[in-house]
Amino acid sequence: MSEGIEAFRERVYLAGRELYRDLPWRRTHDPYEIWVSEAMLQQTQVSRVDGRWQSWLDRFPSVDALAAATSADVLAEWQGLGYNRRALALWRAAREICERHAGVMPYDEAALKALPGIGPATAAGIRAFAFDLSGVYLETNVRAVFLHELFPDAEGVPDSALRPLVAEACPDDPLAIAGADVPCSPRTWYYALLDYGAHLKRTLPNPSRRSRENVRQSRFEGSHRQKRAVLVRLLLAAGIEGVSVADAALELTEFEAKAGRAAVTEAAASGILEELAAEGFCHEVASECWVV
After folding, report:
1. pTM score, whole prediction
2. Which residues are catalytic?
3. What would the pLDDT profile of 112-167 be if each residue is shown by its tens digit?
4. E-strand spans in the chain?
5. What is the DSSP string of 137-189?
6. Which residue in 5, 29, 82, 211 has the most C-beta neighbors within 10 A?
7. Count of CB atoms within 10 A of residue 104's CB?
8. Neighbouring C-beta atoms of residue 150, cutoff 10 Å
């Protein structure tokens, strides 16, 4: 390890430990519970996840319980967290874990990334927080720290420049750092990065905006994504009675009218339902009647 990275790690670790957040999902080493938290925290504020994570685990306390649920149950529990695809990915991955891994969450990186909805960052998060294994956990708060500390004046920094540094800084084995209350291991190291990164984003111009990978989230209000969410809620409320294309168009038109936007045609509503069906959110049970 280079002296620069070692000094960086010690400085960041001490700062992160001072800023430590005692979040509920940090009180467990259960890989399923940590996986759920990682999925929920993607593009969602911590304050919105606290409470919803506990509710999810009350309803689906294990991989087996999630795999045995219906897609409608899973989507209903997810409502309000946004990006409903994440809920279906969790459900499908749970079923694969039961079928291929006897219901035991794998810790091998390749096996994790082979599951629906689990990319490199989520796999690294599960490995670090559940199994205390090293890896490249590169998400927005982590990215903010590396950009602030090591690229203070650079713009458009690619992740390809950060990944080797993230890998080098993450300890393989617990290290004693003078002044720290606990040894620095992959689990505690990445918690320190997350907390220091969150602090930087609250107190400074967000360093992660200087990343080449930074993409501003598109406007939700009035978007196609919002219309999809409206129809998912309508499908869940309708249950086995299903939703007709005409009802879908009427619901969307009423929703849009409240915001002063144009009516939604049946053709547009049908297109959204077909799109949702292709992704596994619903299916057609009769001509132009859709159910979850």
Report:
1. 0.90
2. 38
3. 999 999 999 999 999 999 999 999 999 999 999 999 999 999 999 999 999 999 99
4. 243-244, 283-286, 289-291
5. ---HHHHHHHHHHH-TT-SSB-HHHHHHHHHHHS-SS-B--TT-SS-B-HHHH
6. 211
7. 12
8. 16
